[in-house]
């Protein structure tokens, strides 16, 4: 395709760094909105994305960045996976070229009501939960961000009244004016510190960017029991109206649990339902449910619909997903637990003796907080990683049986051998998956396949 026309119009040249879901979505929306678009990926672009770019007649390159050309951009959309301090990114900044995230770019082209959801854990479940209730309530609603199709692509190709967006800290790092009408912060625990120069404060600030452009007309829903969030809010005033949720205390506006009832109040409008009706088990899921139901109540979904949705929601694949019961042993896939805090929730919700499959790429994990739960609930540990030393050092004295494995099949067979009637086998790795698997989905699917093959 000829490149001449691109250089002739200097006001509208959009460069997209990264040819994955968010990059391709941005390219499609950019093209639709009249930009000249060029997609550049240092790695390989997947074939199905290449096809889409060809269909839309968008230029692309892979395994290379044509730096000179990229530096002619008026605007650059950087995919969330590219670090903030990558050499090309620094070069662009040095030239004063504006770099934004897909979320920032796409938000400018929609008038839909935006619900933004972030947090170290629980954000996917809360996003899907919220979308499920709003859809059941008859709203015309899309779901994007870290789940499903990219936000930019949906803005380009569909017309909805509301978006529920799951937002990572990396996506929030690239926003300037993005302003959700309702924002949700599920919790903050140390995660991805490798990306934030091991500075927890930077990571916290990154999460709170979700509310930075909100005004008094907007709402901020958050976990009032989370000490990190409470401390930040006590030191940094925000403009949005606060709606906390809590398992520990009563709140005037927001959500809490009392006498096994969830109680949600917004300006004297009350919703109650018994916690026993929630399909998802565990305290963290009660919190996810409260956050989602608070959003639904703000958007005036009928109370019967909210109650019915909370008791029908099936949860998220790879998140405490019950796979099969074999010989009265329950196998649970929690592959999405890529940090210690997520695994804490998983172990906390175990009600029987547990054989725990753990390990992978350790992001500087502190395992100490798991020790009491491991002592109480875990009878055997199966390490599944290339380097299992941190796990062996942390838990070697807690359990009688510790096995090292190098494949999912081997791990599941070991678990099968060790499990007795009434036990649970839990895959909850507390680590990233890249040493032995493509990603956490691949790890979870391999687990499910191995269990079904027993």
UniProtKB/TrEMBL annotation:
<dbReference type="InterPro" id="IPR004101">
    <property type="entry name" value="Mur_ligase_C"/>
</dbReference>
<feature type="binding site">
    <location>
        <begin position="119"/>
        <end position="125"/>
    </location>
    <ligand>
        <name>ATP</name>
    </ligand>
</feature>
<dbReference type="Pfam" id="PF21377">
    <property type="entry name" value="MurD_N"/>
</dbReference>
<dbReference type="Pfam" id="PF02875">
    <property type="entry name" value="Mur_ligase_C"/>
</dbReference>
<keyword id="KW-0547">Nucleotide-binding</keyword>
<keyword id="KW-0131">Cell cycle</keyword>
<keyword id="KW-0133">Cell shape</keyword>
<keyword id="KW-0963">Cytoplasm</keyword>
<comment type="similarity">
    <text>Belongs to the MurCDEF family.</text>
</comment>
<dbReference type="InterPro" id="IPR005762">
    <property type="entry name" value="MurD"/>
</dbReference>
<dbReference type="InterPro" id="IPR013221">
    <property type="entry name" value="Mur_ligase_cen"/>
</dbReference>
<keyword id="KW-0961">Cell wall biogenesis/degradation</keyword>
<feature type="domain" description="Mur ligase central">
    <location>
        <begin position="117"/>
        <end position="296"/>
    </location>
</feature>
<keyword id="KW-0132">Cell division</keyword>
<dbReference type="InterPro" id="IPR036565">
    <property type="entry name" value="Mur-like_cat_sf"/>
</dbReference>
<protein>
    <recommendedName>
        <fullName>UDP-N-acetylmuramoylalanine--D-glutamate ligase</fullName>
        <ecNumber>6.3.2.9</ecNumber>
    </recommendedName>
</protein>
<dbReference type="GO" id="GO:0008764">
    <property type="term" value="F:UDP-N-acetylmuramoylalanine-D-glutamate ligase activity"/>
</dbReference>
<keyword id="KW-0067">ATP-binding</keyword>
<feature type="domain" description="Mur ligase C-terminal">
    <location>
        <begin position="318"/>
        <end position="431"/>
    </location>
</feature>
<comment type="pathway">
    <text>Cell wall biogenesis; peptidoglycan biosynthesis.</text>
</comment>
<comment type="function">
    <text>Cell wall formation. Catalyzes the addition of glutamate to the nucleotide precursor UDP-N-acetylmuramoyl-L-alanine (UMA).</text>
</comment>
<keyword id="KW-0436">Ligase</keyword>
<dbReference type="Pfam" id="PF08245">
    <property type="entry name" value="Mur_ligase_M"/>
</dbReference>
<keyword id="KW-0573">Peptidoglycan synthesis</keyword>
<dbReference type="InterPro" id="IPR036615">
    <property type="entry name" value="Mur_ligase_C_dom_sf"/>
</dbReference>
């Amino acid at each position: 395709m000829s490149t001449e026309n691109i250089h002739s119009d200097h006001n509208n040249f959009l460069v997209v760094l990264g040819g994955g879901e968010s990059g391709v979505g941005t390219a499609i929306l950019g093209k639709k909105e009249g930009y000249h678009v060029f997609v550049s990926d240092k790695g390989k672009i997947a074939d199905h994305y290449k096809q889409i770019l060809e269909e839309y007649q968008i230029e692309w390159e892979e395994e290379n960045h044509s730096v000179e050309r990229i530096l002619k951009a008026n605007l650059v959309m950087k995919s969330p996976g590219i670090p903030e301090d990558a050499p090309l990114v620094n070069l662009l900044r040095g030239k004063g070229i504006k770099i934004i995230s897909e979320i920032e770019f796409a938000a400018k082209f929609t008038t839909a009501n935006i619900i933004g959801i972030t947090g170290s854990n629980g954000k996917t479940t809360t996003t899907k939960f919220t979308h499920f209730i709003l859809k059941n309530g008859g709203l015309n609603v899309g779901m994007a961000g870290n789940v499903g199709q990219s936000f930019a692509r949906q803005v380009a190709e569909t017309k909805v009244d509301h978006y529920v967006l799951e937002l990572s800290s990396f996506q929030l790092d690239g926003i300037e004016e993005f302003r959700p009408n309702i924002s949700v912060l599920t919790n903050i625990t140390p995660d991805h510190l490798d990306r934030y120069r091991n500075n927890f404060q930077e990571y916290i600030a990154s999460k709170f960017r979700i509310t930075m452009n909100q005004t008094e007309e907007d709402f901020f829903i958050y976990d009032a029991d989370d000490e990190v969030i409470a401390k930040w809010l006590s030191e940094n005033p925000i403009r949005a109206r606060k709606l906390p949720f809590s398992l520990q205390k009563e709140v005037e506006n927001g959500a809490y649990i009392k006498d096994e009832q969830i109680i949600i109040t917004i300006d004297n409008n009350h919703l109650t339902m018994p916690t026993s009706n929630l399909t998802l088990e565990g305290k963290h899921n009660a919190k996810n449910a409260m956050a989602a139901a608070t959003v639904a109540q703000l958007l005036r979904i009928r109370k019967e619909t909210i109650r019915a949705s909370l008791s029908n929601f099936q949860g998220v694949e790879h998140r405490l997903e019950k796979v099969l019961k074999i010989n009265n042993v329950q196998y649970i896939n929690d592959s999405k637990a890529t940090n210690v805090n997520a695994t804490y929730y998983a172990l906390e919700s175990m009600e029987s003796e547990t054989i725990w499959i753990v390990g992978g790429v350790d992001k500087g994990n502190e395992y100490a907080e798991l020790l009491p739960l491991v002592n109480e609930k875990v009878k055997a540990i199966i390490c599944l990683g290339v380097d299992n030393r941190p796990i062996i050092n942390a838990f070697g004295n807690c359990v009688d049986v510790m096995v090292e494995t190098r494949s999912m099949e081997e791990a599941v067979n070991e678990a099968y051998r060790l499990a007795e009637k009434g036990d649970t086998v839990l895959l909850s790795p507390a680590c990233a998956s890249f040493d032995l698997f493509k990603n956490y989905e691949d790890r979870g699917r391999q687990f499910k396949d191995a269990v079904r093959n027993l």
